[in-house]
Amino acid sequence: MSKIYLGLVHYPVNNREGDIITSSITNLDIHDISRSAITFGVNKFFIIHPNERQKEIFTKIVSFWKTDLAKYYNKDRVEALTVIDFLPSIEDSIKKVKNQDGRDPIVITTTAAKMDGQLSFSQSKRLFKEERSILLLFGTGNGLTKEVHQKADFILEPIIGPTLYNHLSVRSAVAIVLDRLTSDKYKEE
Predict the structure, then answer these.
(1) Cα–Cα distance measured from residue 57 to residue 63, given in angstroms and rounded to the nearest whole number
(2) Which residues contact 144 (CB under 8 A, 6 or more apart)?
(3) N or C: which end of the chain has fewer CB within 10 A?
């Protein structure tokens, strides 16, 4: 099975009006997505943000969880945060994976929107048979920009529930996508 890397993109992402923005990191995303990442065997979870001040906030949060007090308080969270790293761009995350694994990863973007040519969860299983690693990109704000999707190797189909409502938190979407991509339930058709 291919190695899985995860990127939570804060720039470039869209706002509600479709403008390209930079979103802020959140404590909940750091903790919850790290726990999902380690549960589903992700090699590395990248917080992707170009702003140095946001990196300082990230470092402060993660540094607390390296203290003895944190280890006493919640050792499981401390373990989950061992999988996280901060990088300034999507390109830097691709380079980091390439430096670790020797090849460019297969880049798969995610979205809540239906788009032409999207890869189904069951079709994605064939990618896990490749020798190349997989980099899954999730957008904050109102999702990744069309330019990010255009540069990707594949765009994953959206998570569709039984209702018309389709606006999951990114934390929930990550957990569902990782479950579907690593679960035997979604085997290649």
Answers:
(1) 10
(2) 9, 12, 13, 14, 109, 110, 111, 137, 138
(3) C
